[in-house]
Amino acid sequence: MSKPKILVIEDESDILEVITYNLEREGHKVISCRNGEQGLSRIRTDNPDLVILDLMLPGMDGVEVCRQVKSDPVTRAIPVIMVTAKAEESDIVLGLGIGADDYITKPFSPKELVARVKVVLRRGPLREQSGGGERVVRGELTIDLGRHEATISGVLLTLTPTEMRLLHFLASHPGRVFPRSHLLSRVIGEDAIVTDRNIDVHVRALRQKLGDAADVIETVRGVGYRFADGRR
Ligand code: CA
Q1: Are the beta carbons of 79 and 87 closer than 8 angstroms?
Q2: Residue 74 C-alpha to ligand 1 middle, in angstroms?
Q3: How remote is the CA of residue 131 from the centroid of ligand 1, in Å?
Q4: Which domains does the chain have, with CATH numbers?
């Protein structure tokens, strides 16, 4: 595989420099621009493997850039990592809700950034996972989407297709918090006429079936759910 090409959209020179330096050191090809309009056109013309997108940009902000990238069939498969200021939890929720693949909060360490980039590049676009027959193993839990099979310590779980996708999706991103609306669109489908609370029902049923392992799915008050990252 040739060098992954990463587009960094960031208006602050210091941060842009740090990001560029660290990604190039990892062997990535880095291109950059400093505002949303330019960023969007570079995404369309340069077809990067990954976009690192600052939220606060002059002119068109990061949210709008992300929204446009993710609503265009040509560009929506390109993974986007959003960069947000630490306090902006609502922005994180909004960004994930409109399809960002991951986020990182300022200030971040170069090590964290490089690790995040690696993960996102490795897993590729989220939207293509559901058809991939991908197998996820987390401790005693194994989820094989292709075979529609989930087991705990080798014991088969009886899950509905929605529960299977939900568990697979969460387990694919341990430690990441996903808002209910995001889970709904990824797991149930954007056309479904359902409310955010609908996801609660699926989570409750799923936890029941997980039995002793129910706590792998954690509720994050006021936001949504995450798969326990197992580091505690
Ligand atoms: Ca900025």
Answers
A1: no
A2: 26
A3: 36
A4: 5-124 (3.40.50.2300), 127-227 (1.10.10.10)
